[in-house]
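FAQ

Q: What does a record look like?
A: Structure on top, sequence underneath. For example:
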């Protein structure tokens, strides 16, 4: 039986006088990010966020030459490339680091902005701690880049910082939907990714990478459990949240699955082509 963590109502929105009872069952979604206390601010980092699309023509050419093509800049593809050549470990770690920076931005905003929806205080504490976890993952991966002879900025970001928050549809800002997509689906994806990188590092004898991703994995297990718990709690008084959130989660997981499958197929096709040309079997 779940322990009651707080007497504070669970994301229960007050209904102004004159509104119908239906409003209590399905309150209006959160206000847009532009109207919230944080505003539609641009995430900042030093060096600044830079995607492949923001590189100059000369930089794109040099980047493609480093990886054998920009299409290889994917954690699934890079993992298999690193298995055969350790120089691809650095871009692999950078692909993870990009997501960790995005995690700090997202969970920091999520912690603050959901307060306007009167979420339980212990939920706020949980996601404040998760923001701290994402910061620790970022530091660990930056140190791993240095360990591998690289640095932040050598490779572009796979995931951009949240620079277009005001364009997010209102219904997408519901805490339950965000929990289902980010904590349950995306963090579950991250858990699998960290496990695969840890296994690769163990095979290659990269003890530092293996050790750091062992820590990261332990955090991701907690993050997924945190999402499951609070998704259930938010749905207790407003059951409509659960169906909407689960639908959003399934949609998001299908997208992630497609990305992994496309990358895996590309790795397989590339390995097959190498074998036909006398390359090393995969």
């Amino acid at each position: 039986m779940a322990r009651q963590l707080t007497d504070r109502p669970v994301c229960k929105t007050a209904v102004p006088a004159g509104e119908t009872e239906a409003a209590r069952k399905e309150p209006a979604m959160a206000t847009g990010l532009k109207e919230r206390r944080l505003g539609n601010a641009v995430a900042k980092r030093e060096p600044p966020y830079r995607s492949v699309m923001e590189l100059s023509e000369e930089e794109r050419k040099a980047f493609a030459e480093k990886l054998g093509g920009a299409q290889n800049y994917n954690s699934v593809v890079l993992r298999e490339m690193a298995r055969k050549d350790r120089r691809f470990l650095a871009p692999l770690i950078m692909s993870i680091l990009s997501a960790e920076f995005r995690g700090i931005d997202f969970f920091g905003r999520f912690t603050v902005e959901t307060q306007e929806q009167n979420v339980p205080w212990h939920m706020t504490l949980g996601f404040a701690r998760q923001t701290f976890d994402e910061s620790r993952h970022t530091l660990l991966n930056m140190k791993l880049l240095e360990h591998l002879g690289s640095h932040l900025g050598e490779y572009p970001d796979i995931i951009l910082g949240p620079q277009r928050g005001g364009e997010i549809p209102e219904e997408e800002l519901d805490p339950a939907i965000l929990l289902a997509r980010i904590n349950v689906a995306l963090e579950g994806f991250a858990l699998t990714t960290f496990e695969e990188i840890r296994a690769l590092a163990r095979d290659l004898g990269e003890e530092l990478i293996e050790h750091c991703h062992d820590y990261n994995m332990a955090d991701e297990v907690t993050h997924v459990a945190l999402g499951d718990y609070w998704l259930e709690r938010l749905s207790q008084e407003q059951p409509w949240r659960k169906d909407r959130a689960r639908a959003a989660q399934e949609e998001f997981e299908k997208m992630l699955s497609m990305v992994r499958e496309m990358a895996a197929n590309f790795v397989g096709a590339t390995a097959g082509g190498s074998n036909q040309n006398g390359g090393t079997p995969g």
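Q: Is there anything notable about this one?
A: The mean pLDDT is 77.
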